[in-house]
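Table S7 (text form). Paired inputs.
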Amino acid sequence: MESKYQVESIAEEHRHMTYWDMFATWIGANANNGTWFIGGIIAACGFWGGIRALIVASSISYVFLMLVGYMGKKTGVTTMALSRASFGIKGSVIPSIVNLTQFVGWTAVNTFIAATSVSYILHSFLGWPVYGKPGGNLGLIAGIAVMSILHLLSIIAGQRSIQIIERIGIILVIIFVIWESIVVFKDVSFSQIGHWQVPSNLKMGFGTAMDTLAAFNLAWVTAGADFTRFTKKTGTATTAPFLGANLGVFGFAFIGLSATISIAISSGVYDPNNSDPSTIANRLGLGIIAMLVIMLTSMTANAVNIQAAGSALNNMFSKLTLKQSLLITTIIATFVTFIPVFYGSFLETFTAFLDYVGMVLGPIISIMVVDYFVIAKQDYRPSELGNPKGKYWYKNGVHWTAFTLWIVGVLIYIGLQHMAFIQKYTGATFIVMIVIGLLYWGIMRLKKVE
């Protein structure tokens, strides 16, 4: 009798993802609207403060992407299936819920920004008011519908269509970044951008920027194995995601940061609410082609987001097929995309979402990585991940040590975030990950001694 907790492990002969495919996937994942918007948000640190935070937070985060990518390559299973080994077969529902909600959230973020671009296109052709103006919600709602239909069509077409989107998308994205850079630096010099001073009432601490970027970058880590399980070579599973994700985030966050500051210099007003790529592209006069590229970048990023959310749902309800899970998560994301329409501020909604991601995700990743590389010494048995009588069942299907430490990590994060020193210098995320990782290693070692 087949277990209801069954896990699919991709066999070596069915792994066909090349280094270029993996590299393109992770550039496409980060070369998107959300990354651009993040660049605009960290402009509140000033140009050089934002650059420093971007380099440090992204590099550390994507080391974890490499580690989880290696886990996927070695076992052939998704990240959420891997979480069963550390959290228990039933306990893995916690990482799965976190993954489902955060990737549905990221899908909604990218869809919302792309829908804003659609509203500008509709304004050009039909004269509809753009989003943000009286009556502009109509164009936004139409944009959300258009983008959601495109996402559904790509899922129905299958994995091959996603690879084609990624391959075409990466070329157009690179061209767009170069084009945007030329326009930005034509009117405002690099020296002016570098010396721009943030208004004191809007200034962001370096530690806060670190947490913002950590939440953004670590979100991809829990999708790592979902793609690297289709690879045969270690380099394809480790260096390709690391280099691709870093190149994507540096390129698009840099242009978001620079464009936001350039508009603040030329207009005399810095408003982080206007940091989204559609608004900036419109202010720079880039036209309809830019809006179409922004729509495409939404599709390339959401190909990864929807895949990860669907895998999480599939881990929770294994009777669903992966395609059914993907379709369900896309529909849920469509409804979530409407939240900022009624909430009133996309920036406030986005910031609250990042706070949630940073708080819950770090401890999960830390526990999973320590469990695989230190406790299990890279020896997971995929066949046991779905066995309710096996080693990963723990007590009633839950590994209470991991679950308890996850709660402790969330509480530590909440406490640290209110400390002025943390906000100004370090951020809470990576400190929490180190503390929880050490605690997990120490407790598990004591258990072995007993």
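Next pair, protein 2 of 2.
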Amino acid sequence: MTFLLRRSVTVGARAISAPHSQLNFHRSGYATLSTASPYFNNESSGPSVTTSIPGPVSKKAIDELDSVFDTRSLNMICDYEKSVGNYIADLDGNMLLDVYSQIASIPVGYNNPHLHATASSPESINFIINRPALGNFPPGNWASILKSGILSVAPKGLNQVFTGMAGSDAIETSYKAAFMYRRRIERGEGVDFTSQEIESAMKNQSPGSPDLAIMSFKKAFHGRLFGSLSTTRSKPIHKLDIPAFDWPQASFPVLKYPLEDNVEANKEEEQRCLAEVEDIIKTWRCPIAAVVIEPIQSEGGDNHASPVFFQGLRDITKRHGVLFIVDEVQTGVGATGKFWAHEHWGLDSPPDMVTFSKKAQTAGYYFGNSLLRPNMPYRQFNTWMGDPVRAILFRGIIEEIQRLDLVKNTAETGAHLYSGLKELASRYPDKIQNLRGKDRGTFIAWDTPGRDAFLKKMKTVGVNIGGSGESAVRLRPMLVFQKHHANMLLERIEQAYKA
């Protein structure tokens, strides 16, 4: 059975009539795409794998690259000119459905026409060739760029932003803000630094360099720079040989699945973890300035907790005067079916800071309390302090998300995909275990034995997919990923598990 719906889709200033969906129903029961996506009139009709991955052309390019650049973490070498929408191409002509999307970083598809127009605009070109040092020499329209872009989607209650270059940068500067805020409150508003503080700071000693801590959670990932790395707990390879701060880690809830069958056990686990958090805050050897947490632990294995847990965590931090930092670097910008994942929690008061990067294509942290802005200039500062070109690009991304209602699309597609995976899990219970991510958009994962072999097998059936933690398969499709893409993915997953 085949059906076809059409609608007019605006790309930049151009309207095109593109097939909404034309689906062929196969024996597997999944409907697969046979014509173009409504968001991209030139998107591939499906995966195509004609050589091994890497193929001969890619292998030659990898050898050349390896002579000047470390390729040991290489996944695949890509042809970005030929990649379109949800599909990524390699140099050998293979075309893969990409549900990893540059480690969750592509929001609205490869070679999105609106982003192409945004990046090609005179405004962007001006900042590319005349890059401003934003702290010293911002352009006259920097406030307008922030208000019309980054701040237009600010989490509720957070109306200011510090812009940065990458996720780790956003995290590190949020930690600095937390420490400066803590000492500002302890010292008293308007009290100057003492001569002892000034002198000891230059020796990396107290009181100028105070003994303060950031609390994170077991299995957390917050980046690979020095400060952020001290709060990263996902894999030893990230941390080995690197000096670290003596900062505490608390237990993140280890939930049992399916959730509906383990309500009481999971409730007890979350309460245990909250009690541990409060005990650490009370007993740690030095004051804890902030608690940092991911709404869904991503690199650590796609670990979830309930809104009740996060509400409890917010209550604890407020009760003890500890700042609450929510790391939305990977979960933000629509991936969970809401623009910010912490919107699922229903908090009575907002987080103190929310970090962002990845799908935003820029980075930084939001905040609302003006006391989080340092009391003197140059305390939170670097040459670039972000990049106006990337801020303009985020504005373009926001425009595409709003124009196409992509957060809603992701919520609906995620529900459809989760339902299909749940059905697959019932037929392959030994291979799809601990399915998680219900009602969290396309931010879905499961555990599978022999995970790394499965990821490689998926390439042979035309899907680029990623893992997290020790055994999790994680899905990180783009916001333009739709139900017909989901059907195709389900079919290819089943094909890989059958092989």
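The radius of gyration is 24 Å.
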